[in-house]
Design a protein that fits this description.
heterodimer; A: 352 residues; seven-stranded antiparallel β-sheet; 2 helices; 46% strand; B: 165 residues; mainly alpha; Rna Polymerase Sigma Factor, Chain: A; Arc Repressor Mutant, subunit A; 7 helices; globular
Chain lengths: 352, 165
């Protein structure tokens, strides 16, 4: 890379006019309010601890001391901060504590929402299965029996924010999910460090790692009826039963960046179609679309092992709205028998 | 002046001195003025909460690191708008040519998240490779390779005006 280009980039950055007025007094006031909330939370916590100590002391004094002390159980705690969109159900902070003893997991979830607090205890068999429970209409919690690279919820409707925290002492992961509205979580899919994907039913999930060359993973799972992509910016998913062969599986808006709207699309090709060594597919886009890149690959493991998927990322002006026909007019690829197959999204294979 | 008043005065002076640079960084990390404002505000609040533990000379670096981490956190949590099988159609733009700021933001928009952050920190904030690595929590080698890939992508796909393609 030439120094000239770096110098020009620095010059361009420096020349950018960007003068957003800032109210320092309002910022200070916001800082003071946050500090007040923190102090209030600490005082409240200390009060709870003191009350528990006062009420439990008599019971402790009546408890006999065993000749051989019982082993102290390990109860790792995952902590979460600020999750969900602004709403009464937004989680300010939460903890998921997991204790293991006598073949059971004791799970304690405490969450402070904008609208109040939640505190619930659960028990779950310590048998390698997933624990997943609703705490309210919009807040769910889970404990996954693996260390994970990522976790994606399989959702019934709406948008969900999720965050995961590892529980390294147990080799597990705690997950907190907050919905934009009321909804349910049908299950979870996650990627383990060994590069395989699993679902909360205990099945291996078909996975194409690094599907776009930038770390995005594509997964497809017949058991939870879902196909999706996990990207650095979040994820998208689609019911597998709603996806016909040769169709655009999913088109989504990844985000707007100063006048540019970035899209992603996923294609699931028919069983046996599209050899790995074959050429990349040809896309035809409508006007005003910049084709960024497409990558194809094979799903590994699970019920859809061996099926090919094509992932495409493209951009258009941010004025693009969603109506009518697809920005992707067609996709053409070469089948193993050498014939060229053209697919029109939403319409299946094009007539020849 | 009480210690609290002195602390608040120091913090207010710090905000006035740093808001322009931090807002610019946030804007180029996100490409969105409102989002940039929210991120900077949240970074300032977290910096205020830590004000007693950080030295004034470290405050900008601390706030910038919080800002970058908040942006990464935002990416992790955001679920992109899903449109399912609903197709899209372009609508002709009524806007005129983008200004200089939007032109650079468009260049950055095509970069993956980490490349974008490295390019912004290295060439907008003019941080050293070591400081960029510390801010992002990655190695110096990763900064070098990521910056190289980011610049290559910018040059290949988004050449600034006046640069021959």
């Amino acid at each position: 890379m030439s120094v000239d280009f770096e110098t020009r980039l620095r010059t361009d950055f420096a020349a950018v006019p960007l003068d957003i007025p800032w109210d320092a007094e309002a910022t200070l006031a916001a800082g003071r309010r946050a500090r007040g909330r923190r102090i209030g939370a600490v005082i409240g916590g200390l009060a709870v601890v003191a009350a528990v100590a006062v009420f439990s002391l008599p019971m402790l004094l009546r408890t006999s001391i065993p000749a051989i002390p019982e082993p102290i159980g390990v109860s790792p705690t995952a902590r979460f901060e600020e999750l969900g969109n602004p709403s009464p159900q937004r989680v300010r902070h939460a903890t998921i504590e997991v204790g293991r003893s006598a073949g059971e997991l004791r799970i304690t979830v405490q969450a402070t929402l904008e609208s109040g607090s939640l505190s619930q205890e659960f028990t779950h068999p310590d048998d390698g299965s997933t624990w997943l429970e609703p705490l309210s209409d919009q807040v769910w919690a889970a404990v996954v029996p693996d260390p994970v690279e990522w976790v994606s919820p399989v959702i019934s409707e709406g948008g969900w924010a999720s965050d995961e925290q590892s529980l390294p002492d147990l080799g597990m992961t705690a997950v907190l999910l907050v919905g934009e509205g009321r909804g349910t979580i049908d299950g979870l899919i996650w990627k383990r460090a060994d590069g395989t994907a699993w679902n909360s039913l205990g099945d291996e999930v078909s996975l194409l790692s690094n599907a776009d060359g930038e770390g995005a993973d594509v997964y497809a799972d017949a058991a939870l009826d879902v196909m999706g992509m996990r990207t650095s910016g979040g994820g998208m998913e689609k019911r597998l039963s709603e996806v016909g062969p040769d169709r655009l599986v999913q088109s989504m808006v990844e985000g707007d960046r100063a006048g540019v709207r970035v899209f992603r699309g996923l294609f699931l090709l028919p069983e046996g179609d599209y050899p790995e060594a074959g050429p990349e597919p040809d896309f035809v886009f409508q006007q005003d679309v910049d084709h960024v890149r497409s990558v194809s690959g094979v799903l590994v493991g699970g019920a859809l092992d061996g099926r090919y998927v094509v992932a495409v990322r493209y951009s258009a002006p941010a004025t693009v709205t969603l109506e009518g026909t697809s920005l992707i007019e067609s996709l053409t690829y070469t089948a193993p028998n050498g014939r060229r197959v053209t697919v029109i999204p939403g319409a299946g294979e094009a007539p020849r | 002046m009480s210690s609290r008043q002195q602390r608040d005065a120091e913090f207010t002076a710090f905000v006035r001195a740093s808001s322009s640079a931090l807002t610019k960084t946030a804007w180029f990390l996100t490409g969105d003025a409102e989002l940039a404002r929210d991120l900077v505000q949240e970074a300032y609040v977290k910096t205020y909460l830590a004000w007693g533990r950080i030295r004034p000379v470290e405050a900008v670096g601390y706030a910038r690191k919080v800002l970058v981490n908040l942006n990464i956190d935002r990416w992790r949590r955001r679920r992109p708008e899903s449109v399912g099988n609903v197709p899209e159609r372009p609508v002709p733009s009524a806007e005129s040519a983008a200004d200089e700021r939007d032109r650079i933001a468009r260049m950055l928009a095509g970069l993956p998240r980490q490349q974008r952050a490295v390019v912004v920190l290295r060439y907008l904030d003019d941080l050293s490779e070591q400081d960029t690595a510390a801010c992002l929590g990655i190695s110096v080698g990763a900064v070098k390779s990521t910056a190289s890939r980011g610049l290559a992508a910018l040059r290949a796909g988004h050449v600034p005006e006046g640069e021959p393609r």
